[in-house]
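Annex B, item 7. Sequence and structure tokens for protein A, then protein B.
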Amino acid sequence: MKQATMASVLLAALLLLAPGCVSHVIHTHESVSRDTTWIRVEEAKKPFVVSDIVGGEHITRYRILGFEGERYLITGRGEGLYMSVDPGTSARLIPTRDDDTCIVEVLSLDALITIELSAHPVSDYTLEIRRIEATDD
């Protein structure tokens, strides 16, 4: 139990997660120019929120594990931030009026939704992933 708690503290410090968001993280992998974090947003009441820096040749990826019928409101904000959302073949991307926000709906059994963040030269960013009900959009 003590090791899991220490890992959670280190992960929160590394990613600058908002309070309560560590429980959403399934796994994190860091490499020279690509960092990937897999997450699962279980509850609609508690969004995944992270603030960090990205830039240069570095790309930061977040991958959401979603299941049929789930919808996610994804918002990425930052000066000069480029956000790409790939819903994969099992989900669909629904644009919104705000260029920084989209909705992804999982259409079949499961989906691995990929969000890639990059910037040139560099950007402080905040990414929020909120699970929403079909009537919330």
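Protein B:
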Amino acid sequence: MADKELLRRARNFFFAQKYRFDLGLQFLVFLNFALLILTASDKLKAILGLEHITEVILVMIPVGFVGAWAFGWFLDKVVHSPQTTERETVKRSLVWKENFQKLDEIDAELKAVRKALEKKK
């Protein structure tokens, strides 16, 4: 039994670290965007025919951040992405399926007890 507990704790530890890593990866997107703009700056300079690309970079990076924030706001407020993700996770989870099955059993037993009590009245 101690082996199962050790495996459970190890699994929970690794999934907690994966969750933290996933949160950190979200911020890596912003760093990648900024580096992409800096890398493409010479090409932008040639395409746009600008002498100094610094001003464009100083505008593009904040616009990119605001655009990412606006898309996140849209997903949060309009699409309700966190709630939809949670619903999908619950739908696929064996633990939640077992919990709902037990709740249904408890509900059925409770209804039977209520019915029996009403008959006694």
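Comment on protein B: The longest helix spans residues 2-48.
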